[in-house]
Amino acid sequence: MEHLGELRRRIIISLVAVAAGAVVGFVAYNGILDFLIDPYCDLENRPPGPCSLFITDPLEGFATRIKVASYAGLMLASPVVLFQLWRFVTPGLNPNEKRYAVPFVFSSILLFGFGVLLAKITFPQALEFLVGVGGEDLQAIFSPSKYLRLILLMIVAFGVAFQFPVLLVFLQLAGALTSRRLAGWRRGAVVMIFVVAAVITPSQDPYSLLAMAGPMYLFYEASILIGRLFKK
């Protein structure tokens, strides 16, 4: 019961942090939305005039603001949530596990941030491809819900996919895999990486596929090297 009470306290603190971050996102909504629709504004095949998304539902504007504020709250509160998770798990770890936990958490955050950055850089080319593949007779007019869903899914997909090396290193430390076995699977891993990237990429365009699969293969090779270093 004491452990469940501790879990309850950590969850409440995390929810309060997310709510506080959502309030900040609600206030800073206009700036966040401008940042997200920059790729759309750079499109050649969009309606002339000011850059804006179009709504057909009276409630869609409010729903869009709530959605953006919620995602902003999750992003802003993520350090607090991870810290609360760390504080909850730490008492159950031995000193050796604690020694490995800090690099794992730090590298996970760093790789997720790198994935988000790469998704933001890649998204304009992906959007240009998706709009242009339909032909010149189609004009790009997007609703906020569908546009934001695509770009946010792209960001999450890249961030999660870039946790790939953390998983491989963890499996090697746990003894489930070895660096020699990963090296032997190299050819099959290349094919599997491209298949997985094609499946989880929301936009299904070649630019996003290459932008995700290329780093994932480099991460695969880096995981083999790190596994060999740990073995020594």
What attributes does this structure have?
232 residues, mainly alpha
Give a short synopsis of this structure.
With 232 residues, the protein is mainly alpha-helical.
Structural overview:
This protein has 232 residues and is mainly α. The protein has one domain (2-231). The protein is built from 10 helices and no strands. α1 (2-27) packs antiparallel against α4. The longest helix is centred in the middle third of the chain and has 38 residues, at 95-132. The termini are far apart. The mean pLDDT is 86.
The major beta sheet can be summarized as:
none
Gyration radius, rounded: 21 Å
Mean pLDDT over the residues: 86
Order of helices and strands: HHHHHHHHHH
Helical amount: over 70%
Percentage of residues in DSSP E strands:
under 5%
Net shape? flat
Helix/strand class: mainly alpha
Tally of contiguous helical segments: 10
Could you outline the blueprint of secondary structure elements for this entry?
Elements: H1 2-27, H2 29-36, H3 38-41, H4 60-89, H5 95-132, H6 144-161, H7 164-173, H8 179-184, H9 186-200, H10 206-231
Helix pairs in contact: 1-4, 5-6, 5-10, 7-10, 9-10
